[in-house]
Amino acid sequence: MILESGYKKRRDRLFKKLAKSSVALLFSAEASTRSHDTHHPYRQDSNFYYLSGFKEDNAILLFVKSSTKCKTILFVQKKEKTLELWNGKRLGVKEAKKLFLVDEVFASKDFKKVFDEYAQKKKNLYFELNRKKLGIKKIVKSAKDFKTKQDIIPLIQKMRLYKSAAEIELIRESIAITAKAHHRVMSVEKTGKYEYHLQAEIEHEFKMNAAYSDAYTSIVACGNNANTLHYIENSKPLIDGELILIDAGCEHNYYASDITRTIPVNGRFSDAQKEVYTLVLETQLQIIRMIKPFVKRSHLQESAERLLTKGMVDLGILSGDVKELIKKKKHKKYYPHGIGHWMGIDVHDPAPYRDTKNQEILLQKGMVLTIEPGLYIDANDKNVPEKYRGIGIRIEDNILVTKDGCENLSYAIAKSIKEVEAISSHRCSSIQ
Ligand code: GLY
Ligand code: MN
Ligand code: MN
Question: What's the CA-to-centroid distance between 272 and ligand 2, angstroms?
Fold first, then answer.
């Protein structure tokens, strides 16, 4: 759990990055319409949440830095009986002032007036340059001429690259729920079922464990559907003898998990499936072993490409010299994506991969990333031995970089052929 003092510490760190004599603005997420008058569940903007822990709509954070002091001002929706009757309780100004360690709280409707006052005599303005809808530009334009106008987002994203102990704990909790979901789906009877039935099993486990939402729409892709990387249709029948690629992770207390397992419909891998699975798994294990501070993500990417390409040559999926094949990008047809990404409040945490000098950011203690090699062989690919056609496999775990190595935060989720087959045939009850 992140305490109020934790959010305040983050704001204090942000203040250190702001130039003297500046104001900075951050807006809450907007409610989003699903269709006509129905709405998606509201979810706070990740950067706003990161700096405030405040979950309501129509809120604004104003940071004021003068030569002598720093002030944080939170704007929240006023309490309004009728609207609250329909849409739920609001905290309101008074309660927000009690709960949050900010210097002042005002009603959002008073924003313009308060902002104009604080913005006077300030030289620099930070705001979300790329946020279009909110009329920020109008506010900013009507305020006054600032000497500089800068994007606040990169400053926050850089902070989000390093996870605190409390954040790591929240990620562990999120992964623990996702682990239950993957084990549930491995062990359920699949005969006669459809992909969406497995999606329902996953979401059942998420919700039963108080993870209200998935961190992204689950991918439940049977057979050749796994070769569509972002397959979220989840509408096809499960076919005996095929594999199912399941990429699913919950969001719990605003922290994501992102796990992929590839499992057999009938509980047993065929020999051909085992060959491809073993290649992906051994690649993944080897890449995870390489993770430690000062390693480049691009090095992990290149190593995964080399291992997978060599393995594909051994299996007869590709033919030729490994180096040449990589140079000509021949492997990309079967492994077209990255080795992994930052993960945190967002599943693809938008922390930077390069620094301001365009140098690659090296792995450091406290970073969390996914490692997710895969191989995708289309059912109609005549260049590949027939036995491998239609196989799509990805294996994905969530890794914490530690002082001298790394910790696989999702190590407990069954992954070896033996473990997966055991759970699938109800022979292993201990892994839950
Ligand atoms: N679930 C999305 C990804 O693996 O990046
Ligand atoms: Mn991922
Ligand atoms: Mn994933």
Answer: 25
* pLDDT tens-digit readout, 19-60: 999 999 999 999 999 999 999 999 999 999 999 999 999 999
95-109 pLDDT tens trace:
999 999 999 999 999
pLDDT of residue 171 exceeding 90: yes
Distance CA 242, CA 263 (A): 9
Report the chain's C-alpha Rg in angstroms.
Answer: 24
How does residue 137 score in pLDDT terms, banded at 50, 70 and 90? low
Question: In whole angstroms, what is the distance from residue 334 CA to residue 313 CA?
Answer: 12
| Tokens (6 digits) for 259 | 């796990």
Q: Using the atom order of ligand 1, give the atom closest to the CA of residue 215.
A: 1
- CATH, range 4-160: 3.40.350.10
With a cut of 60, say whether residue 394 has pLDDT above it.
yes
Q: Is 70 exceeded by the pLDDT of residue 143?
A: no
Which ligand has the minimum distance to the alpha carbon of residue 260? 3
What is the residue extent of each domain of the chain? 4-160, 165-424
pLDDT in tens, 187-213: 999 999 999 999 999 999 999 999 989
Instruction: Report the nearest-CA residue for atom 5 of ligand 1.
Output: 348
Q: Is the CB of 258 under 6 A from ligand 1?
A: yes
Q: Is the CB of 247 under 6 A from ligand 1?
A: yes
**How far, in Å, CA of 40 to CA of 193, rounded?**
28
Q: What is the CATH number of domain 165-424?
A: 3.90.230.10
Told to judge if 396 belongs to the known catalytic residues of this protein, a careful annotator would answer yes
**Exposure b/e, 48-57, CB count within 10 A at least 16 = b:** bbbbbbbebb
Report which protein residue has its CA nearest ligand 1's atom 3: 258
Bridge partners of 124, per DSSP, are 22, 148
Question: Of these residues, 43, 306, 348, 389, which one is catalytic?
Answer: 348
Answer yes or no: are the C-beta atoms of 201 and 184 closer than 8 Å: yes
- DSSP one-letter code for 237: B
pLDDT at 101: 94
Catalytic status, residue 182:
no
Q: Tell me the helices (H) and strands (E) count for the chain, helix number first.
A: 13, 19
Instruction: State both tokens at 279.
Output: 């290649």
Active site residue 230: yes
Say if residue 129's pLDDT is above 90: no
